[in-house]
Amino acid sequence: MGWRPMSSSTRDQIQNEIRSLPKDAQYNAPAAVLDKVGRNIYQIPSHPLGIIRSKIFGHFRQHYGETFEFVEGLSPIVSVSQNFDVLNFEANHPGRSPIDTYYFNSQQLLRTHTSAHQVDLLRSGKEAFLCVGDVYRRDTVDATHYPVFHQMEGVRVFPGGNDLDSERDLKQCLEMLVDDIFGKVEKRWIDAYFPFTHPSWELEIFYQNEWLEVLGCGVVHPAIMEAGGVSIEKGNSAWAFGLGLERLAMVLFGIPDIRLFWTEDERFTSQFKEDTITTFKPFSKHPACYKDIAFFLEDEHSFAENDFHELVRTIGGDLVESVTLVDNFVHPTTQKKSLCYRINYRSMSRNLTNEEIDRLQQAVRAALPTALPHVTLR
Ligand code: FA5
Ligand code: MG
Q1: pTM to 2 decimal places
Q2: Which helix (H) or strand (E) element contains residue 355?
């Protein structure tokens, strides 16, 4: 059922770590959020997030060979220093507030972005990397916001390079990536601000009739280069970007609600296949039941399909999810046209009983001759 189970050891390990962390007055992470830590759904090959991640990795391999190192599985439990201080966040930056951020104690928190690893990864000697992980932010809960989402961080150092080279390479790299993922789309660069890059931009794409922000990026700030052990005296330069995987997945797969990424419901999980982008077919949380109804048209020209749809809606109300024509043929001797419609019944809020659905279907059949006098039930 649901996703193939992940190895539970990393999850157990991090859950144990969470239990043993010192908590103080700053502690504000609820159990439902903590429960997501270590699930690593972005590593499931057939999960929409996993499919996007692999597609981006594949793109970078194809265009840059072994240049970029792929980093995953870093613990989302980081220090105030990693998430904010070394990234040059002002002391009174609102992001630091426990209104926006989940803390365990005054020093340890759930990372709010994958940028929290920039400096450590630079320090470890990596010059180009992509880093994927779950990030946590306190926020309102609606179709596009969830306290846990996923980011991919990209960083590339140009030893001996200058900032203009970085900017040119950054923009070209990201435009190419977006074209590869979305097909050729209209894009625009918006000036932005991040404490750890300068200059900074956001990339927006025009997709399905609206501008959509997909990432933030910029030329790495000298203070971060220095903290990461990359000497700026030698004229080194670097770029960085951070993109949201859910944003991309929601538009690419047509997933309407960010909560769906966490469901184990097989009607969601079974829709996706490794390496394949498909359009999500929505379902409600309760089972559907369909009934077919077939009739002959006594006078083909006096039948309007909309009239039949309306009749079904009038009787079935919101319990009718869809009405579709599933068969049509002409009777060989009478030459009368026969239509067969499938009515899909489904409640958004409860399970329907067979008796209830039968009663509705009977009511439709009973109403048909009066509502559509030119048809004969089969
Ligand atoms: C950041 O998090 C920066 N760390 C990005 C960055 C990295 C800038 C490196 C410069 C250099 P921001 O908060 O805008 O920036 O988030 C980056 C992306 O994450 C957004 O463009 C969006 O795609 C995604 N994102 C942000 N908030 C949410 C949210 N609540 N739900 C889903 N996706 C989100
Ligand atoms: Mg932003």
Answers
A1: 0.77
A2: helix 354-371
